[in-house]
Structures are given as structure tokens and as C-alpha cells.
Amino acid sequence: MATPPADAAERWAIAPIVSYETHQLPPIDLAELQAALTTATEVGSTTIDPRSASCFEVEQGSFFRIVNVEGHQVGDLNLWNRDDLGERFYSGKTRQLHASHVSTGDHLWTSIPHLNPLCTIVEDSLDWYGIDEYGGSVHDVIGTRCDPYTNFRLRGENYHQCCHSNLSRALADHCQVPLAEAELHVHDVMNVFMCTGFTLDTHQYFMKATPARAGDHITFYAHKPLLGALSACPGGNCGSTHSDDETPCYPLRVDVLTPAEPVAIDYDERLTSAYDGTHGR
Question: What's the alpha-carbon Rg for the chain, to the nearest Å?
Fold first, then answer.
């Protein structure tokens, strides 16, 4: 390790700044969305079996709610604009614009060159958890998804119920396309109900058992027509191991709800991808 320079203390003491001033974004009326949710009725429901994944669709202006059915289960969520799979959830930009873990009032943003709010979290039964003494929090957008490639690198064995594989199979079946084509659309996830962080000493990604219990849920408002895929992770509550058939796992459920009246949202150009795309040329 290099010897610290004479001014190391001065360098360490430089104060951080928040990179993106999101308060300058055009506001979306969360109270209005929450009021609309109180009028919404269920129009569809999808159960995701343990160590599997399923797709679901949500109309623009509707809500979808992910529910922990029996308890202690985390899920890996992929989202696309249903009319254009090239516009999909962008976990990295969501992380930069909001935080490493998202909750009520945060948007899930789409990929460049679109960069639109795909949906907004309107309620979260775990928003009480906050940040624990280890630096852990719930609903992360920092992890990727358990996948068979990393699993093989680490363990030297094939395992086909990783979330990446689950999501790939579900999308292939839903869209009626070859598995290899569907896999190219699977992307970094929102880890729903998962409690994660970075260790304070080595900054390594960690997971701990989810605080979610039966009935815990998170609800989103769809700004675009959505295609979603949710995997009930083979890690179960992610408090011990990943990607095996031994950890207890439970189902998840996605309920789709439509409000009595459409929500009138005034989108200005900064929320409709109005950049001219010339990149200075």
C-alpha cells in the first residue's frame, strides 16, 4: 500500500456533494397518485412460484403491486415499455437520480436515449426500515441479479433457477421468441424486498435476511404501458446463500389495479425525453 501523502488528512476531509439536484426535475404529484390508488380496483393478478418467474402487463395509468404472499421472500424485477422493449428499466441512472435503495416517491427510470420515468413508487410497507446499523436498506438498485454465469465461475456447476435464467425463460414464453433472443432483453433489476448494502470496512456488497413478512408490499404507478417480469429468487430471504434448491423459498404475487378515473399528469419536456440527440454535431 502506498504511503499516505503529507496532505492526506486534508484530502480525506473534502466534503461530498450530491451529484444530481433532482429537486429541479418537474414534480409529479405523489398525493394525487396515492389518492387515485384508493379508488383502484384489481383487474388482474399473477402468482410467481418459488425459483421461477412470470411476466405481467400493466396499462399506462394503472398500478401494480408486488406482494409477499407467505413471507421472507425477495424478488428480482425487470420492466420494459411494452410497446418498445428497447426502452427498459435503467437501474444505474435510477440509482444516481435517487439512491442505492428506492422507496415511496422515487421513479424507476428508463434507458438512454429515452430516460423517462417508467413508473413511480406510490406506497411501500417497508419504508419504515430506513438504513440499519450495517448500512443495509431495502429495495436495492445496486445489485444485478443472480445468474448462471457468475454461479459457474464461483462454483463450477450449472444451476438453471438463477433469476437471470428465470427472467429469460419467462420473457421468451410471454413474447413467444427464442430463449437466446429473450435473454438479450434481460437487464439489471430492482431487488424487491431485498436488504443489501456495502460493508463499512471493505465496501463489499452484502445481503442480509429481508425484513419483509407476509402481506408486505410495494406499489407502482405506470407512466407507460408496461411489460414486467418478476423472479422469486432462489435465495429466498437472501439471509444465507444464493442460487440453490435448499434455501426455503416462497411465492410472490403481482396485482394490477386500475383507478376509477385516469390521473391527469402534466408531463413537460424534461420528462418526455426532449433532448435533440445531436451530441454536438
Answer: 20
Interior angle at CA 199, CA 193 and CA 203, nearest 5: 115
Output the pTM of the full model: 0.94
Q: Going by C-beta distance under 8 Å and a sequence separation of 6 or more, which residues neighbour residue 104?
A: 30, 121, 122, 123, 124, 127
C-alpha to C-alpha distance for 222 and 81, rounded to whole angstroms? 10
Q: Note the helical H segments in the chain.
A: 8-12, 30-37, 91-97, 148-155, 163-175, 179-183
CB 43 within 8 A of CB 258: yes
Cα(187)–Cα(153) distance, rounded to whole angstroms? 20
Looking at the predicted structure, is the pLDDT value of residue 15 above 90?
Answer: yes
Query: Any idea what DSSP says for residue 28?
Result: -
Coil, helix or strand at residue 136: coil
What pLDDT sits at residue 90? 97
Count CA atoms within 13 Å of residue 29 on its CB side. 11
Tens of pLDDT, residue by residue over 143-178, are: 899 999 999 998 899 999 999 999 999 999 999 999
Tell me the average pLDDT of the chain.
94
> Grid coordinates representing 252?
410472490
> How is residue 234 written as a grid cell?
432462489
